[in-house]
């Protein structure tokens, strides 16, 4: 509010708002001059209506509101950043899983064809297949699939105990309705 533009003398409510809600910690003497009133009048209002306490309460409320809004904005920003990381993580692991799955599919198809062969031709073709290599591709597929499941939180849909453990670690109380109201897990 543009206090200097208000016509003088100010009302008691205008003085109270200037004293209580002003960002500037204005004193009684300065307030009286700005309001076009006597210092004694303003002092009486301040003392009788507890403006000092009102100012302190207003400033405390303002600080709390600012802190809450700051925390909310920071939380939203961190949440957005974490969401972006999760999305990128998911995309990378999905690409890896799709790539590895295609390699395993090609190798399995080749092995099936080689098993159709006979004699020396079959021996030679099968000897070209590597169990350790197939195992490595299988492990890569398992890791990427597990990472995708973890990113999506599938573990908690499939395993109720894992979900309950996670909630308990985060401070939530888990109640099993089949055990009665007072028994915790």
Can you walk through the features of this model?
By secondary structure, this protein is an all-alpha fold. The chain folds into 2 domains: 3-49, no CATH class; 78-171. The protein has helices at 12-21, 28-35, 39-48, 51-116, 119-127, 131-152, 154-158, 160-169. Helix 1 crosses helix 2 (28-35) and helix 4 packs antiparallel against helix 5 (119-127). The protein is rod-shaped and about 115 Å long.
Task: Give a short overview.
The chain is mostly helical and 185 residues long. The chain contains 8 helices and no strands.
Strand content: under 5%
Order of SSEs, N→C? HHHHHHHH
Specify the structural class.
mainly alpha
Q: Can you count the beta strands?
A: 0
Per DSSP, the total helix count is 8
Oligomeric state, counting identical vs distinct chains: single chain
């Amino acid at each position: 509010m543009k206090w200097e533009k208000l016509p003088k003398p100010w009302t008691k409510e205008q003085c109270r708002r200037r004293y209580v809600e002003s960002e500037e910690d204005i004193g009684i003497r300065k307030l009286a001059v700005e309001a076009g009133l006597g210092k004694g009048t303003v002092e009486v209002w301040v003392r009788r209506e507890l403006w000092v306490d009102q100012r302190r309460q207003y400033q405390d409320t303002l600080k709390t509101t600012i802190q809450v809004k700051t925390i909310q904005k920071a939380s939203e920003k961190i949440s957005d950043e974490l969401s972006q990381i999760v999305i990128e993580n998911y995309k990378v692991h999905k690409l890896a899983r799709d790539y590895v799955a295609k390699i395993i599919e090609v190798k399995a198809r080749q092995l099936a064809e080689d098993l159709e062969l006979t004699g020396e031709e079959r021996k030679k073709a099968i000897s070209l297949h590597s169990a350790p290599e197939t195992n490595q591709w299988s492990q890569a597929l398992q890791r990427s699939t597990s990472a995708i499941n973890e990113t999506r939180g599938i573990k908690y849909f499939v395993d109720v105990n894992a979900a309950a453990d996670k909630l308990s670690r985060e401070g939530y109380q888990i109640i099993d309705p089949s055990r009665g109201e007072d028994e915790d897990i």
